[in-house]
Write a structure and sequence with these properties.
The chain has about 240 residues and is mostly helical. About 70% of the residues lie in helices and about 0% in strands. The model has no long low-confidence stretch (mean pLDDT about 95). The protein binds zinc ion (2 copies).
Length: about 240
């Protein structure tokens, strides 16, 4: 990238983030997205627990959903880390997302609050959960498929909590779950921040070998791209 292009992109990044931080509109939008996601998840979970697929069916759906949510959220992360359209309508949200490389530490919060707040960044999840709700209301869906979709949609928010715990918590249970591969392990996820274009998964990291293959083929990475674009932004403190 030429120096003039880089300076222009850095200006666009700073403008977009000033917009995000400047008015309450963007934060209000995040709150609306979080409310839509969490209420749809709650309703769908209530509906899916009434389906007669037995404990084994629910466990199978949960297992498939754990893998699916890890992969899909990793793909979205890869797309977002490469997206530099700061002047688009979603530009302020993209710029805010890119701060996770500059200030990976979170401000410590009560875990249900982390779940709610971080669900507000998942705009794509609203149409996914709404479509799943329509499927549930139709009464035509295969119950195992429906349960899998509901669990995957809910675990997409759990993935944000897993990322938060990975960066912020020293609780023995969180470390144990990370080391078991149920949640994201600190050692595994450190690769995303220390190296380039790898380990995009947020929930457990299980699908990172596949995501890394896709990244190598389709993504240009972030160390020499979007990470350079936020270089002139002055961060306020060490956590976000
Ligand atoms: Zn990232
Ligand atoms: Zn991280």
């Amino acid at each position: 990238m030429l120096a003039s292009e880089l300076a222009e992109k850095q200006r666009q990044f700073n403008c977009a983030l000033e917009k995000y931080n400047g008015g309450s509109g963007y934060h209000l939008f995040d709150m609306l997205v979080a409310s839509a996601n969490v209420s749809l998840q709650a309703w769908l979970l209530w509906r899916s627990w009434q389906l007669s697929i037995g404990i084994a069916g629910h466990l199978a759906a949960l297992l498939i959903a754990w893998v699916l949510a890890d992969f899909v959220n990793g793909l979205v992360h890869m797309y977002m880390d490469n997206n530099d359209r700061y002047e688009s309508i979603g530009g302020p949200f993209i710029a805010n997302f890119h701060l996770h490389h500059k200030t990976p530490l979170y401000k410590e919060k009560f875990l249900p609050m982390v779940y709610f707040v971080e669900s507000g960044s998942k705009v794509w999840l609203v149409p996914f959960l709404a479509a799943t709700a329509l499927l549930a209301m139709s009464g035509q869906a295969n119950p195992l498929l429906l349960c899998t979709l509901v669990y995957a949609g809910t675990l997409s928010s759990v993935a944000e909590v897993s990322h938060y715990l990975c960066h912020t918590s020293r609780a023995p249970l969180a470390i144990f779950l990370g080391n078991c591969g149920i949640l994201l392990s600190k050692r595994h996820h450190a690769g995303h921040h220390l190296q380039d274009n790898i380990n995009y998964a947020f929930l457990s990291g299980l699908t990172d070998p596949l995501l890394n293959l896709i990244a190598r083929r389709f993504s240009r990475g972030y160390k020499q791209h979007t990470d350079l674009l936020n270089a002139t932004w002055q961060v306020d403190g060490e956590s976000r």
